[in-house]
């Protein structure tokens, strides 16, 4: 580590601060490190161990982030520092040094919507992202647990989550500024040296995640925590198609012992990938999305389509086995309709 103090700092609210109104300016001020070499990262991150388990905020930035895009920055938020891992300047050597941590069961990665980040890590660096807490999934589970129904495709955005007073209550106005810049110049995250706006925006995407995680975990019951772990694992591998049906990925979290004795039958949750023949996706989606929306409303499962980022000829279904099979049958039915 360099002896000179880092020139960039930001406020990171600690999990122990939660429970009252979050005052961002009153949170501890921590350094932001720009990392181009593995030696600049904490040893406890680079060498995961059961004796030193961690939870960190996690996110990635890039150009058209997916298998064919470019992962430019990986953000890691610790309680006492934020690390911006520069995948462009550090390259494959730096990302390879991070691989054990990203695949480790001893390091919990708290992220909002892990699917495309995981896909980029897998296809660009051979990293199988594991042991995530996806705050987008957690939000939906809490809503369901508290009796509030969610409409199909009604996913909370990160900006929306930050604004929710139950979890953070912070207005994230700079996010829109960055979105405008990205629309004007999709290569925004490739430029070096990193500008003040890039550093601030990258840090803002992770600095609240541990605080939100702590607030969410306290609200989730045992059943929801299990669903959170399983669905996070399935979302991580969702777009990471391979030829061995994910046999080289870690096993899914088992049902906790305290739930096995309950009268409720816990159904296995699975990921199904359906191939859609050329020219048939339009039938699956329907006019203005009416067909796929009807299927989503009829099945208690998540149904995702690769879309422009790909793979465009596949449908991904995540949920309880019976609901997934129901969705499969309905989608196949749409394919053969005249």
From TrEMBL:
Keywords: RNA-binding. One of its GO terms (molecular function) is 3'-5' exonuclease activity. It comes from the Eukaryota. The keyword RNA-binding applies. GO terms for biological process: nucleobase-containing compound metabolic process. SUPFAM superfamilies: Eukaryotic type KH-domain (KH-domain type I) (SSF54791), Ribonuclease H-like (SSF53098). It comes from Nepenthes gracilis. Gene3D superfamilies: K Homology domain, type 1, Ribonuclease H-like superfamily/Ribonuclease H. This is 3'-5' exonuclease. SMART domains: 35EXOc, KH. Residues 32-221 form the 3'-5' exonuclease domain. Residues 268-336 form the K Homology domain. The keyword RNA-binding applies.
